[in-house]
Design goal:
CATH class: Alpha Beta
Strand order of the largest sheet: 1-4-5-6-7-8-9-10
Bound molecules: ligand PBG
Catalytic activity: 2 5-aminolevulinate = porphobilinogen + 2 H2O + H(+)
CATH architecture: Alpha-Beta Barrel
Organism: Microcella humidisoli
CATH superfamily: Aldolase class I
EC number: 4.2.1.24
Order of helices and strands: HEEEHEHEHEHEHHEHEHHEH
Structural class: alpha/beta
GO molecular function, one term: porphobilinogen synthase activity
Number of strands: 10
Keywords: Heme biosynthesis, Lyase, Porphyrin biosynthesis
Shape: globular
């Protein structure tokens, strides 16, 4: 079957008119290829130890550090709005070289997971960040060796203990964001050995060494000096991102992720084309902040920009998206 070919010179007008399908909102709705629904969104939240009331984060307009009480309240709102999940990050009062707070059952992240599970049960997928950087006094995602380099295998031992502590706290999906080699295998083995065979793993497989994490480092009050280029991916590499995702699948990842999102839509598409497991993307703090800051100045329409970003990330292959704007957009009826 062949469609009519394009216009020949001398025609009065084109016979092929794609604009017909854009003529009304109803028509556009009928031909829309990509859906954006609340259940495809995950809200990342920060929980700070020792807070009585939520505190705004200067570089992330509309985003706050939560107390244990206020995180319960926002998780209830997220569940009521029909979001798919919530991703918890802890901001501890004290940090040390090995990130002890990450494995302490009373540590802020584990306490937050228990509080949120008590509030929402299974109506949201309760997720925890499985990484040491919020808990170490040097701010790296792993522990350091005698030369001050990030020690891969020593970090894995900490991740294994962290996985079990988070599962004991009730988290249902653990977000491995440390970019240590073998972390998915180690977390899976530790969970299985402890009987948590139903706790799932979200591997931040293709996590790039990105400037777009800047506001996040404010949000978690990160002490990091230097950067994460010995473990996070080089922004120049797409093939390597695909390889990391494949390795995580082999190691038992239930879901793989690409992060950041907007500057890596090509990587997302390539991973989505070959992944046998669901693929998620994380629209990170700096991506949120860019839109929010420009919108505050009246330079762009913030709502439209957020929706366009999210639908583009879905179009590029993400089954679900982590977004700081997700709850606000759903509560205001912009995503339904
Ligand atoms: C590591 C982690 C980071 C983010 C999510 N998990 C920080 C980093 O790798 O530097 C960044 C998310 C964001 O910028 O929104 N715990």
């Amino acid at each position: 079957m062949s469609a009519p070919t394009s216009d020949t010179p001398g025609d009065l007008g084109p016979s092929i008119r794609p604009r017909r399908l854009r003529s009304t909102a109803a028509m556009r709705g009928l031909v829309r290829e990509t859906e954006l629904r609340p259940h495809q969104l995950v809200l990342p939240v920060f929980v700070r130890e020792g807070l009585d009331a939520p505190q705004p984060i200067a570089s992330m307009p509309g985003v706050e550090q939560h107390s244990l009480d206020s995180v319960r309240a926002i998780s209830a709102r997220a569940a009521a709005a029909g979001l798919g999940g919530i991703m918890l990050f802890g901001v501890p009062e004290r940090r040390d070289a090995v990130g002890s707070g990450a494995t302490d059952p009373q540590g802020i992240l584990n306490a937050a997971a228990r509080a949120v599970v008590a509030e929402v049960g299974e109506s949201l997928v309760v997720q925890t960040d499985l990484c040491l950087d919020e808990f170490t006094d040097h701010g790296h995602c792993g522990v350091l060796d005698a030369q001050g380099r990030v020690d891969n295998d020593a970090s894995l031992e900490r991740y294994a203990a962290m996985a079990v502590a988070q599962a004991e706290a009730g988290a249902q999906l653990l977000g491995l964001s440390g970019m240590m080699d073998g972390q998915t295998r180690v977390a899976r083995a530790a969970l299985d050995a402890a009987g948590f065979t139903n706790v799932a793993l979200l591997a931040y497989s293709a996590k790039y060494a990105s400037a777009f994490y800047g506001p996040f480092r404010d949000a978690v009050e990160s002490p990091l000096q230097g950067d994460r280029r010995t473990y996070q991916l080089d922004p120049a590499n797409a093939r390597e991102g695909v390889r990391e995702a494949a390795l995580d699948v082999q190691e038992g990842a239930d879901i793989v992720m690409v992060k950041p999102a907007l500057a890596y839509l090509d990587v997302l598409r390539r991973v989505a084309d070959v992944s046998p497991v669901p693929v998620w993307a994380y629209m990170v703090s700096g991506e949120h902040a860019m839109i929010a800051a420009a919108a505050q100045r009246g330079w762009i329409d913030g709502d439209r920009a957020q929706l366009e970003a999210l639908v583009s990330i879905r179009r590029a292959g993400a089954d679900a998206v982590l977004s700081y704007a997700s709850l606000d957009l759903v509560e205001r009826g912009l995503i339904a």
